[in-house]
Design a protein that fits this description.
By secondary structure, the protein is mainly beta. It has a single domain, classed as Porin (Beta Barrel). Helices cover about 5% and strands about 45% of the residues. The protein has 3 helices and 20 strands. The protein has a 16-stranded antiparallel barrel with strand order 1-3-4-5-6-9-10-11-12-13-14-15-16-18-19-20. A hairpin with a 6-residue loop joins strand 9 and strand 10. The protein is globular, with a radius of gyration of 22 Å.
Length: about 450
């Protein structure tokens, strides 16, 4: 797939070649697969007082679009080394004909056109400044070091990296497989904190100096809520900033990203405030360290990330200490090319949550053990040309007894209601066969 002018952290985006275009370029990916899915091993509700109504998923077949997209990019020479640059990119669901992809405004996949990286900016010797709907440097760093083509499909690293399953921390997963509290995300992502996303932002990408460049992105608090009510939440100011540093020289690439976000969730309901005495005000800090080395036709990639979250106290008397959580995860990827044959292997592990509840006594919820997950993916691809590949892939997520990670960040989730909607302890898996074409 052609590199974007800005993926907010992918090295080489400020090269002269990227901005030499004087006409609009159309580019994209068409990736469709036939999938056989199933899930099994649900524990019947170990983290809730009552048993879940369903412990496993019926096997089913389906087709998936795997982050297919179309984009338009270009630039205008303004003289004296200055250029105006733009990009307009949209995700395509080639399997349904419905391309108003996503959920409500503010979610990571909004409705309408331009729901992938879409921006306008200025580029020159000073670097690039871009304004628009942008991937965070954190997201782009994770995608950069993923060994799966386009960081897409069921085996994408972002199903584990940058995500924290929180269903067992703040309230139990109910019979429908979801929680009442939407900490960290909106709607169908209720059981996860997700620091991987796209947002309305302004970003600066520096030029390269001896293989080193940096990216700084800022999400302003344009959705600040000044209508605090005791029954829901205090005033909130959703905002974020993200700094990433990248080194690319020869076969070696190393990146580090630090992300600081707050109040991206939708707050507390009255019921969950009563149960846990929480205000809805949030803070998340995430770090991602990644390295990749290319040995001839073999690529080895490694990522480590950590997420620390804080959910502030409410107003009930006698309760002390905020609710806190920390989770570490890592990813190992190997890819090898033999002529037209491509083999990829990926393994990721999210550790158990380390939860602090202050002086709260929450009955019936296991806050720490069994809250992690493992993901394994094997992929074989055959190149008919430089742009067209047929492939087969097997991917599986093995959840701990109190975890409910699912596919759905770079693929289609198993149950159909969003990452984190699988039942506690269930293990979603996908076998697929597909064709991927870039243009």
């Amino acid at each position: 797939m052609q590199k974007k002018i800005i993926a907010l952290a992918v090295a080489g985006l400020v090269s002269g070649a990227a901005f030499a275009q004087t006409n609009v370029t159309i580019y994209g990916v068409a990736d469709g697969s036939f999938e056989m899915t199933k899930g099994s091993g649900g524990n019947g509700g170990a983290i809730v007082a009552g048993a879940q109504t369903v412990n496993s998923f019926a096997s089913k077949n389906r087709v998936a679009a795997n982050a297919s997209l179309i984009g338009f990019r270009g630039s205008e020479d303004l003289g004296q080394g200055l250029k105006a640059v733009f990009q307009f990119e949209n995700e395509l669901d080639i399997t349904s004909g419905n391309n108003a992809v996503g959920g409500a405004a503010g979610n990571v996949r909004p409705n309408g056109l331009g729901n992938r990286d879409t921006f306008v900016g200025l580029a020159g010797g000073f670097g690039t400044v871009a304004i628009g709907w942008l991937s965070s440097p954190h997201r782009s760093t994770g995608a950069k070091f993923d060994v799966m083509p386009g960081a897409a499909g069921a085996g994408g690293s972002l199903n584990i990296i940058g995500r924290v399953n929180t269903g067992s921390i703040y309230n139990g997963i109910g019979a429908a497989g979801t929680t009442a509290h939407t900490f960290g995300n909106t709607g169908t992502l209720a059981n996860n904190v997700g620091v991987i996303g796209r947002h309305s932002a302004i970003a600066y990408i520096s030029p390269k100096f001896s293989g080193l460049n940096g990216v700084l992105a800022f999400v302003p608090g344009e959705n600040e809520d000044n209508t605090a009510t005791a029954a829901t939440r205090p005033s909130r100011n959703p905002s974020a900033w993200n700094l990433a540093l990248h080194y690319d020289m020869g076969p070696l690439s190393v990146s580090y990203s630090f992300l600081n976000i707050k109040d991206f969730g939708t707050g507390q309901t009255a019921a969950t405030m009563t149960a846990l005495d929480l205000s809805g005000a949030e803070k998340h800090k995430a770090q991602l360290l990644a390295a990749r080395y290319v040995f001839g036709d073999t690529t080895a990639s490694f990522m480590w990330d950590t997420v620390k979250s804080n959910l502030a106290d409410g107003a009930a008397a006698g309760i002390t200490g905020d609710v806190t959580n920390k989770r570490n995860a890592w990813y190992l990827g190997l890819a090898h090319k033999m002529g037209a044959n491509n083999v990829s292997f990926a393994y990721a592990k999210a550790g158990d949550n380390s939860v602090g509840l202050g002086s709260r006594a929450v009955v019936g919820i296991n806050n720490n053990t069994g809250s992690g997950a493992k993901m394994l993916s094997l992929r074989y691809g055959y190149d008919f040309s430089k742009r067209t590949q047929a492939y087969g892939q097997y991917s599986k997520i093995s959840n701990g007894n109190n975890a409910s990670y699912d596919f759905g960040v770079t693929s289609t989730n198993l149950q159909g209601a969003g990452n984190g909607a699988v039942f506690a302890g269930a293990d979603p898996q996908i076998i697929n066969f597909g064709i991927r074409h870039t243009f």
